[in-house]
Amino acid sequence: MTQRFVMALLIILSLATSSIADVTLPSYPKGKGKYCVEPTDVMRRDHFEYLMHHRQISVHLGVRSKKHSLVGCVDCHASQADDGTYISVNEPGQFCRSCHVYTAVKIDCFSCHAAVPDAVVKQ
Ligand code: HEC
Ligand code: HEC
Ligand code: HEC
Question: What does the domain layout of the chain look like in residue ranges?
Fold first, then answer.
């Protein structure tokens, strides 16, 4: 955990100074709209806490809010190819993946959860 914390701290610091940092920083598509579900700097630091908490109250306590739903993350953070099809947020270079590769984080969420917006999966 300590090592992870240091990693998280390092990336936060390096993203904060990205204008003067080197070219090895991850670059990924921007989210849709103006705002994330929490302030961007808070999301950068704590997004997994929100996700885990939301999973906890949603799955175990049956609370159905949408604010920190994983479906929402994918809706706003999946980008579209030139032909309009959605690209998985977990593809190399895409939002969730690029940052996690950079920080050596592995998540298994998308082996069960859709990594492209829901509407597309249901078609
Ligand atoms: C309504 C659209 C929307 C939703 C829903 C949304 N985001 Fe965001 N998110 C944004 C925008 C806009 C930004 C700021 C621009 C950017 O950096 O992409 C952002 C920023 C972020 C950042 C910081 C990126 C950086 O460069 O520092 C993270 C991490 C993030 N979102 C994760 C999530 C997660 C996880 C969820 C689901 C719990 C989520 N977002 C839901 C639109 C959204
Ligand atoms: C083995 C399959 C599986 C894996 C792996 C998995 N989930 Fe889930 N998750 C589920 C199921 C099933 C539900 C309940 C579906 C529902 O309630 O709509 C759920 C519900 C959720 C919810 C609440 C509903 C929502 O859409 O927000 C969140 C948040 C969530 N999972 C996050 C995660 C995260 C983050 C990871 C990775 C760390 C993850 N899950 C990995 C199967 C999985
Ligand atoms: C700005 C970079 C960045 C972006 C973008 C990003 N993450 Fe993360 N994520 C991290 C870092 C750094 C950690 C590890 C932090 C720690 O464990 O202390 C992490 C950890 C996680 C974890 C917890 C993994 C574990 O095993 O503890 C989940 C779940 C997660 N991210 C989901 C997502 C999802 C879903 C998206 C896309 C919607 C996303 N992240 C986008 C940087 C990012």
Answer: 40-123
- 88 Cβ below 6 A of ligand 2: no
3 state SS of 80: strand
Q: Kindly identify the ligand whose nearest atom is closest to the C-alpha of 66.
A: 2
* pLDDT per position as a tens digit, 79-119: 999 999 999 999 999 999 999 998 899 999 999 999 999 76
Distance 56 CA to ligand 2 centre (A): 9
3-state secondary structure of 86: strand
Per the CB < 8 A criterion, the answer to whether 49 and 78 are in contact is: no
Cβ atoms of 32 and 21 within 8 Å: the answer is no
State pTM to two decimals.
0.87
Which ligand number lies closest to the CA of residue 39? 1
